[in-house]
Amino acid sequence: MRSEEGTGRTLFAVLAVTAVALAVRLIGLGTRIFHWDEGRVGYWILRYHESGQFSYRPIVHGPFLFVTNDYVFSVLPPSDFSARLVVALVGGLLPLSAWLLRDRLRDAEVVALAAVLAANPLLVYYSRFMRNDVLVGAFAFVALALFVRAVDAGKTWPVFPSAASLALAFTAKENALIYVLCFLGAGFLLLDHRLFRAAKSGRSVRTVLFDDWRLALAYRLQRWGGSVAAGLAVTAAVATGAAAVFFAVIVFFYAPRPDLWTALANPALLPGVVETATLGTWEQFWGLWVEGAHQSHDYLPFLYDYLETLVYGAPVVLAFAAVGVAVDGYLDDAYREIVAFAAYWGAVSVLGYPVATDIRAPWAVVHAVVPLAIPAAVGVAHLYRVGRPTLAGDGSIRARADSLATPESRRAVVAAVLLLSAAVGVAGANAAYMNSASDDTEQVLQWAQPENDLKETLDRVRVVARANEDEPDVLFYGTTTPSGGAVRFYVENESSLRQPPAGGPAWHTRLPLPWYLERYGATVTSTPPEEGTLPSDPPPVIVAYSWNETDVAEQVSGYSANTHDFRLWSDRIVVFVDESELAAARAD
After folding, report:
1. Cis status, amide bond into 512, omega within 30 of 0
2. Helix/strand/coil for 255
3. Which of 45, 222, 228, 381 has its CA 20 to 30 A from that of 294?
4. What pTM was computed for the model?
5. How far is 245 from 162, CA to CA, in rounded Å?
6. Angle value at C-alpha 348, between 343 and 353, nearest 5 degrees
7. Phi, psi of 563 (to 5 degrees)
8. What gap in Å lies between CA 212 and CA 134, rounded to an integer?
9. Across the strands, what pairs with 526?
10. Residues 345, 482 within the same domain
């Protein structure tokens, strides 16, 4: 039993770690330029915020960011900071969930779990990124932790926020279904553990499956209801209520707008909206992500990239998770199922996500780091327990030197080195956040990331676009790639971009610029690739690919050419800005 004083210290430590996690994620949140994927989703969120029209599109994943950022943008002006704010808050608060597992973990392990969730470089980086992976990982983890808390505390109320959190995971991204499958698979392996241990001790399978579980179930039911019969009634009511909570959250987020508001005013329309939000959503998801061709790729290259990112972005989690599994399974007196459960969950994620993902993206590794944080926390706490007494000596130099000769102290030194490397990793991830087009950090960064210097040029574009009285403000110089002939930048009908889907694949080659131009209120046009000429009176801003820089430069005068890396590897654009227009705008 832990003392009230020890419980208070542990809670204070978890709160302190969470405060640091929030600070790390919020400070400088808007400094990095939007990634391609952020720009795509951000643009359509702006369109929804302006038009009030939204419906689920599985290619951009769940509606959580659309719905929540619509509310955020009603309070804060749209910006790189405000768009990422919800993800940063969820990622920063995730360490608090360690407190829910306090009956399954020791005090030091609870604090260590909070620290791992706060400090892992991948979790830090992608908590500062407007994407769904940290959201679905955090919501699924919290849902599991709340359910475990309900079982451990003998209380029913945590089941309801658990159901809501799991539903939020499904609204963030469809791979929440994989989390549920991982939970079921890990649970099955724990059952196999029990049967194996029973066989070794001479107990029958019947005893484990029926007698033990019957007694355990009766005990839980009595805690919940006072008697088995009352407990069954309470369980049925709680399960029904939790299902209703889950269903309500799903319908609220997935229901199309403004149809949901119309149906709430006219209940006769509600069944149709509910059907669209549930069955209609499932059909769209199944058609694209299950029956579609997004998973048609070779497994081994994706696995290699996944493992490379895991080793580069989470070496401390990997090392300590191995220690934690070994300690809990072989060294400690009491084997704990929560540790094995999380280890199985993490291992299946490592092997399974290279199949489930459609592109090689570092953010997918988040889904392995989250579960592996539990055994990693056990490993951290074990090395802390081993090393602390040996380094606590009388404080003299001789005593310190003598203590370093023991095996325990050497393990403590190894632990300190690993923890220091974790801190360095966080610093490295945030350095990459500021210098986000560096090949040196490609294992953490996804390739469609422009260099950060482009933000300075976009500030100049903003000034010009808002002062320009003639339309258009920005012209994209349509072109084709020198090698394959694929169209870049050109969209025949710009008005098609008022509602999704985008009016032609070439629009996506502009990303993330449409997010910024939409915020600036800039009017946009483009030239056909075969035309190769500018209008006689070109707009004050022209965007071209680097291979067309000479062609554009020969047709304009008084424009500065600002060249930037548009992706991580061999993809550069040139933003031409009319300097006289810029000077006049600044003078006003």
Report:
1. yes
2. coil
3. 45
4. 0.90
5. 9
6. 130
7. -100, 135
8. 38
9. 476
10. no
Digit-coded pLDDT (tens) for 175-215:
999 999 999 988 888 877 776 666 666 666 666 666 666 66
Do 238 and 89 reside in the same domain of the chain? yes
- The per-residue pLDDT for range 391-401, each reduced to its tens digit, is 555 444 444 44
Task: Determine how many CB atoms are found less than 10 A away from the CB of residue 528.
Answer: 12
Report the side by side order of strands in the sheet with 559-565: 524-527, 474-477, 541-545, 572-578, 559-565
pLDDT band at 541 (very low <50, low <70, confident <90, very high): very high
Report residue 406 as tokens. Answer: 């023991």
Q: State the amino acid at position 269 in one-letter form.
A: L
Measured between alpha carbons, how far is 404 from 62 in angstroms, rounded to an integer? 53
Query: For every residue of 471-491, which 3-state class applies, written as one string?
Result: CCCEEEECEECCCCCCEECCC
Instruction: Give the span between the Cα atoms of 7 and 136, in whole angstroms.
Output: 29
Is 320 a domain residue?
yes
- How many other C-beta atoms lie within 10 A of the C-beta of residue 135? 28
**C-beta separation of 478 from 535 below 8 A:** no
Q: Is 460 inside a domain boundary?
A: yes
pLDDT in tens, 459-516: 999 999 999 988 899 999 999 998 878 899 999 888 888 888 776 778 999 999 999 9
Contact 567, 449 (CB under 8 A): yes
| Total number of domains in the chain | 2
pLDDT at 147 over 50: yes
In a domain, 392, yes or no: no
Indicate if the pLDDT at residue 5 is higher than 80: no
- The answer on pLDDT for 582 being more than 80 is yes
| Whether residue 403 has pLDDT greater than 60 | no
**Distance between CA 169 and CA 66 in Å, rounded?**
14
Backbone angles phi, psi at 564, to 5 degrees: -145, 150
Residues 471 and 368 in one domain: no
Looking at the domain assignment, is residue 416 inside a domain? no
- The answer for residues whose C-beta is within 8 angstroms of residue 390's C-beta and 6 or more apart is 403, 406, 408, 409, 412
For residues 8 and 138, state if they share a domain: yes
Statement to judge: residues 463 and 362 lie in one domain? no
Question: What is residue 510's three-state secondary structure?
Answer: helix
Does the pLDDT of residue 227 top 70, yes or no? Answer: yes
3-state class of 493 per DSSP? coil
Q: Report the alpha-carbon distance of residue 164 to residue 170 in Å, rounded.
A: 10
Q: Which of 325, 344, 377 corresponds to the end of one domain?
A: 377
C-alpha–C-alpha distance, residues 162 and 274, integer Å: 22
Q: What is the 3-state secondary structure (H, E, C) of 349-368?
A: HHHHHHHHCCCCCHHHHHHH
Average pLDDT over residues 373-379: 95
Using an 8 Å Cβ cutoff, are 415 and 384 in contact? yes
Q: What is the DSSP letter of 33?
A: P
Domain final residue pick, 377, 403, 436: 377
pLDDT at 152 over 80: yes
Same domain, 369 and 461: no
How far is C-alpha 434 from the chain's CA centre? Answer: 19
Q: Are 165 and 146 in contact (CB under 8 A)?
A: yes
